[in-house]
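Q: What structure does this chain adopt?
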Amino acid sequence: MAEKLTQEQQYAAHRWFAIECNNLCWDLTTAARTAEQNAEMLHAAHAGAFHWGRIGETIHHMRADLLLAHVHALLGMGNSALGYARWCHEYFTTHETADWELAFSHAILAQAAAVSGNSALHASAYADAEAALANIADAGDRAIVEATFALIPAP
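A:
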């Protein structure tokens, strides 16, 4: 039987797995994927959310849920994508939010709306995402959000 980890070791393990799963998932979102990689992306998103749920603060949970919305949308799971996206959008638009996170929130909501067939929400969130993208101060942050935004069909 394995030794029980200390609280510090548990925290470190959850943090490590949360970050690893998150990074793997984000890399897969912009790659050409096989069916196996689609499954890996989905599992990584859920695993990351699980580990952040164990040790993270609210912002980590919301970022993990935003990634879940994105992944579910990429995989055509419109209803669950829209549920996650609405939840995250509500959070990011009612709390102090970094410019890049606000843009992501609008973009992922637009993506989820498109996949779920909600054309009015798709159009409004897409326009909000375009405006928020223009307001991202850091060019590096803007480039990261633009890579995701490029995956979203225009209304």
